[in-house]
Design goal:
The structure holds two protein chains of two kinds. By secondary structure, chain A is α/β, with parallel strands linked by helices. Chain A has one domain (about 80-305): 2-enoyl-CoA Hydratase, Chain A, domain 1 (Alpha-Beta Complex). Chain A is built from eleven helices and nine strands. In chain A, the strands form two sheets. In chain A, strands 3-4-5-6-7-8-9 form a seven-stranded mixed β-sheet, with helices on both faces. Chain A has a two-stranded antiparallel sheet with strand order 1-2. Chain A is globular. By secondary structure, chain B is α/β, with parallel strands linked by helices. Chain B has two domains: about 30-75; about 80-335, 2-enoyl-CoA Hydratase, Chain A, domain 1 (Alpha-Beta Complex). Chain B has 15 helices and eight strands. In chain B, α4 crosses α12, α7 packs parallel to α9 and α11 packs across α12 (about 265-270). Chain B is globular, with a radius of gyration of 21 Å. The chains are: A alpha/beta, B alpha/beta. Chains A and B meet through α1, α6, α7, α8 and α9 of A and α1, α8, α9, α10 and α11 of B.
Chain lengths: ~325, ~350
């Protein structure tokens, strides 16, 4: 949780540094990227975030090129974190997203202030992203199959789970339950939102309560863990869905790798906590490339169809 | 999830091996006045014994002053000082409760898949006629024990062991008492390989379906997800000087303030005391401790817990099981919420 949380805090203070905010690997390479940019462009031609550095192979990639490839690194195939809105555009059939509960906003119930107030952090994130919280949810279709979709957005305070995120996950599970639709989740999160103290920890229990009821009523849930998914999100709703998928190279874990390395004072094994590492150790059902994501989810829904009435398929 | 926990634990082990030293993260500086009076009192008592002089009046005066110093100090502790009390090395831990308040205990080991995590103590327990399943984080008391228990930081097999025993309890119709006392779940390579997050998530999910009463007592440290992994219950109680937090104050200060020296501020901001948490509706009730904390009068403090367990279990066992499960579910579904803040999906 710590490493990711730290990152999210950095992000909230430097709103334009999306291309700089990937941890660890980036630092030694940053100057190279800068030089290359300097050679290629005059200063006025360089809006923030034109270039991105691959977390996995450290290649510098032109943002436009990356976006054309579903944010998958052309050199090594690493799956970049997709912002929430882009994820929805990517996964749902065009024009089918019917957003719900977008109006819910966080409250600073603890009067939490570190260097700035929590209220201010939220206000900045809301302004920067044009959405009220780190979770986007609603109805939509994946290759014609109706689903309830919930997507965590890492750009909003590190996709951290506070009261609103926990509530919206629970509401999504309940929408799935009452509408007899499959629940599809995409996670990317640093974990619990510590600015909400124990109220955020309780969201782990709340979301599990909602999923437990969905299970009792025969619901079907699929969670796709994307880079990164750690802390209280991994340790709650993301891990208790019927199917756990992961995107290639995604960092998935309980404690963040930096925390573990610091605690144990030893180097971590190569690929530690990456999707492939977890697959080898039996922690995820399958790793799915973005190119195959739609078909895979559609197929899973078809296999799970007996759990529901046929209402979920109308294409 | 708690991070510094094991670093602290490791550091403590390091010091402990060399001889007496403060326990992890504990600075009891706020007790300096108390300690001063205590040593004066001991001196006076020894003097009286040695010289056969009647110093009764002086001793009584000093005792009264000591008592009022303890009361004054403990009624005005900061959040961070409370954390130090919760971590006090003399504070009763699970094995003390087993030895002191149980009339019978049959320890059941292992998750029957991978191993036996010493950081989780589970077994069949009895107080008078009340039988129940005890599930507790174990910190250990001696240095050797503490090391064997990873200072109360459980691995996935610990959480799976707990779940296995809880399911057994449900089958046997025995209520469950969990005692939370952990800096956090263990952050390590093996723990991640074996699915620490999934193990905790599974426990949280399954605890909603246990068809027996579940009583949760935070007896010391309530460290984040590692605590919640055995922390879903019908009643959640906290000892007066226990704390329960989403992250350790040290971890929070390091991340948000980027300055370990701001740990006391982080402790304050996190609202981790029993008073804060009952106010937020997350904790149901507080179990009072003797003046000056459980470590000052361990026996009395543990007896209070014993009485509380008997009273609470009798109450919970009198309730209808379906209603019990529904209200447990509702308690967490609406955890700490402000009524009317969130919409409701019809038909849930």
């Amino acid at each position: 949780m710590t490493a990711q949380a730290e990152e999210r805090d950095d992000e909230s203070r430097e709103p334009e540094s999306a291309d700089k905010k990937q941890p660890s690997a980036e630092t030694p390479q940053a100057s190279t990227g800068k030089e290359r940019r300097r050679r290629l462009f005059k200063k006025k031609d360089m809006p923030g975030g034109l270039w991105l550095k691959c977390e996995s192979c450290a290649d510098t990639i032109f943002r436009k090129e990356l976006e054309g490839k579903r944010m998958v690194c052309p050199s090594c195939g690493f799956h970049f974190t997709m912002p929430g809105a882009a994820r929805i555009d990517f996964i749902l059939d065009e024009g089918t997203f019917d957003e719900r509960f977008a109006e819910l906003t966080a409250m600073d119930r603890l009067d939490f202030t570190d260097k700035v107030t929590y209220a201010e952090k939220i206000a900045r994130a809301v302004e920067r992203l044009g959405q009220n919280e780190a979770l986007l949810s609603g109805f939509g279709k994946i290759l014609g199959r109706r689903v309830v979709l919930a997507v965590l957005d890492f750009k909003f305070m590190g996709g951290s789970m506070g009261e609103v995120v926990g509530e919206k996950i629970s509401l999504a599970a309940e929408l799935a339950m009452t509408n007899k639709l499959p629940l599809v989740l995409f996670t990317s999160s640093g974990g619990a939102r510590m600015h909400e103290g124990m109220l955020s920890l309780m969201q782990m229990a709340k979301t599990c309560a909602a999923l437990s009821r969905l299970n009792e009523r025969g619901g079907f849930s699929i969670c796709v863990m994307t880079n990164p998914t750690t802390g209280g999100v991994t340790a709650s709703f993301a891990s208790v869905c019927d199917i756990t998928l992961a995107e290639p190279g995604a960092l998935i874990g309980f404690a963040g790798p930096r925390v573990i390395a610091t605690t144990l004072k030893q180097e971590l094994p190569p690929g530690f906590q990456r999707a492939e590492f977890l697959l080898d150790r039996g922690q995820v059902d399958a790793i799915v490339h973005r190119d195959d994501m739609h078909e895979t989810i559609a197929s899973l829904i078809d296999f799970g169809r007996k759990a529901w009435s046929d209402e979920s398929v109308d294409a | 999830m708690d991070l510094g926990a094991c670093a602290r634990a490791a550091a403590w082990g390091h010091y402990a091996a060399r001889g007496p030293a403060p326990a992890p993260g504990v600075s009891m500086n706020f007790e300096s006045r108390i300690q001063e009076l205590e040593s004066q009192l001991t001196e006076l008592q020894e003097l009286s014994k040695r010289t056969q002089l009647d110093l009764g009046d002086e001793i009584a005066t000093l005792e009264a002053r000591l008592q009022s110093a303890i009361e004054a100090t403990y009624s005005g502790l900061t959040a961070w000082e409370r954390v130090a009390v919760a971590r006090h090395p003399e504070r009763p831990v699970a094995s003390d409760y087993v030895a002191t308040i149980l009339d019978e205990f049959l320890e059941l080991h292992g998750d029957k898949v991978f191993g036996n995590d010493e950081a989780m103590l589970t077994g069949l327990a009895r107080i008078e006629d009340q039988r129940f399943m005890l599930i507790a984080h174990r910190k250990g008391r001696s240095t050797k024990e503490r090391l064997a228990c990873n200072f109360g930081c459980a691995h996935p097999e610990g959480y799976r062991k707990a779940l296995r025993k809880m399911k057994l309890a449900a089958k046997l119709g025995l209520p469950i008492v969990t005692m939370i006392n952990t800096p956090g779940a263990y952050p390590g390579i093996g723990a991640e390989e074996r699915g620490q997050a999934a193990a905790i998530a599974e426990n949280i999910l399954e605890m909603f379906s246990l068809r027996v009463p579940v009583l949760v007592i935070v007896i010391g440290e309530g460290g984040s997800g590692g605590a919640l992994g055995i922390g879903v219950g019908d009643r959640v109680l906290m000892m007066e000087f226990a704390y329960y937090s989403v992250i350790s104050p040290e971890g929070c200060a390091a991340i948000l303030w980027k300055d370990g020296a701001r740990t006391p501020d982080a402790a304050e901001a996190l609202k981790l005391t029993p008073a804060d948490l009952t106010g937020l509706g997350i904790v149901d009730a507080v179990i009072p401790e003797p003046v000056g904390g459980a470590h000052r009068d361990r026996e009395r403090s543990m007896q209070t817990v014993r009485e509380t367990i008997l009273r609470e279990l009798a109450d919970l066992e009198a309730r209808n099981t379906d209603e019990l499960l529904e209200s447990r579910w509702r308690k967490y579904r609406d955890a700490g919420e402000i009524e009317g803040r969130f919409p409701r999906v019809p038909g849930v």
